[in-house]
Amino acid sequence: MRILLVNDNSAHTNWGAQATPHAINELLAAGLPGSERRWLSWDWLRTRYRRLKRPLPGWLLDADRARSLRHVIWPLSREEEFFPGVADDFDRFADEWVAGAGGPMAERFLREGDWCDVMIYNGENSLYRNTREGSRALFLLWLCRTRLGKPTCIVNHTAHLTGVLPLMNAMVRKVYPRLDLATCREAASWRALRQEGIANIELIPDVVFFLKEQPAAAARVNSWLADHSLEPGRYVCMSASGLRVSKPRGEWDGWYAALVRVVQRRSGLPVVLMARDPHCQFLREVAQRTGAVFFGAEHHFSELWPLLRQASALVTGHFHYAIIAAIGGCPYVPMSANNHKMAGLNEMLQWEPVEPFDVTDLASCGDSIAERLVALLANRAALSAHLVARTAVLRAQIEDLPRRIKALAGRRQ
Hints:
Blueprint lengths: L1 E7 L6 H17 L4 E6 H4 L3 E4 L7 E3 L7 H4 L3 E4 L9 H9 L4 H13 L2 E5 L9 H15 L5 E4 L12 H8 L5 E4 L2 H9 L5 E3 L11 H13 L8 E6 L13 H13 L3 E4 L7 H9 L2 E3 L8 H6 L3 E5 L1 H9 L4 E3 L6 H8 L13 H17 L1 H19 L2 H6 L7
Parallel strand pairs: 1-2, 1-6, 6-7, 7-8, 8-9, 10-11, 10-13, 11-12, 13-14
Antiparallel strand pairs: 3-4, 3-5
């Protein structure tokens, strides 16, 4: 069975996004032994081109690779769009693609589409509002199904559509009913898609629930804990969010630092600040100002499993950090992300509060976050058992996905 997978996030700057393609590969290798898999990357999906006007009219340049020369290149070129911007234009662009006028990305996709038996789109980090990668992926799914006649699936995604600049909504309504399998990873997205009239959407948990702790990663983390004089079960982990957070500015420590100090005081435990994303690196300075320990981008995503399993609790606005903590039985206090996926995860895990604390308004809710954390610590054993049991149920649901995909092989329009 030959599977074309689109949206490899391995090179992304986020630990959770990095874990996603790894989990999909592990899941398909276990459930479909002998299958061949090819990936098209997140960077490929977002590629933009500029067409020279002079001195070599018609030449295409990768806009991102030419960005360092933009002061020279931009005046001599114009951006060339090979993907539709609205659902109404899908057919016109598809005609251009199959006629050989779709540009370099079309050439590669049509070649890979002809090779595969099934196309699967990893929806991680894309179906939020009007992202370039999400809009393009919807077109590729539709093209593969309607013009190439291949079975198509979208899996592992949050769909947070919006009434503000709603360009993607009609694309979703156009594409999803044509898909052979459409799954989202939490109930908030399932309800949102049902409200768009999508009847074939199914609820299957995030693929990262499938992953397990690796001994080599555990050994690295245990060594790191010892180097920082941290005892297993005697520290609290904290992270920021995809949203902006109050951070240090000159003599101003910011409200996130204030939250760290409240957690340190109320819990009586040392704090480990986790940060992989570039916009979260301010936590290194917060650690210096508060005496917390910093766990940064030099660490591999696989190290989150042993780090969080051995933590007393977690405070986070990152979706996958909460998932990984739950797998290890680490209770967590949810803070808001840049969409509704955290609330959806809390609902799936039967976790309270379902609505996360507002990470952009820590001045108002910081004390409540600390109170919730103290309550978790007082009842940790029972809460840990609940999370371990619940994640086992969700993992079993994911394990059935390869069988569903295998059943599609050979099905053509």
